[in-house]
Amino acid sequence: MERIATLARLELTPDETARFAQQLTAILAYADQVQQVDTSAVAAPPAPADSRMRDDAPVPSLDRNVILEQAPAADQTAGLFKVPRVIGS
Fold it and tell me: What would the pLDDT profile of 17-49 be if each residue is shown by its tens digit?
């Protein structure tokens, strides 16, 4: 719980740490219980008649090298974009 609090930049009292640890344990136990339910006999619901979803069709993506050449800051040899630091700033 202390690691999660640190990552979330929360300052917890010892009482809050103990209480949240118990609550998180209960949530994870319930999630595990839900995952144990046998859903193999459950059919997927039909799509609505007025479905506004398009068919999923693969399309060619943009060429990585062309995009990296146009990026204001990029490491083309690594194939990565450089972005401003946001964590710990």
Answer: 999 999 999 999 999 999 999 999 999 888 777
Q: Token pair of 40, please? A: 């193999």
How many domains, the chain? Answer: 1
| 73 is a domain residue | no
Q: 2 in a domain, yes or no?
A: yes
Residue whose pair of structure tokens reads 């972005």 in the numeric block: 83
Q: Note down the domain range covering 24.
A: 1-37
pLDDT tens figures, 46-71: 877 776 777 788 999 999 888 888 88
Q: For residue 4, what are its two tokens?
A: 């999660």
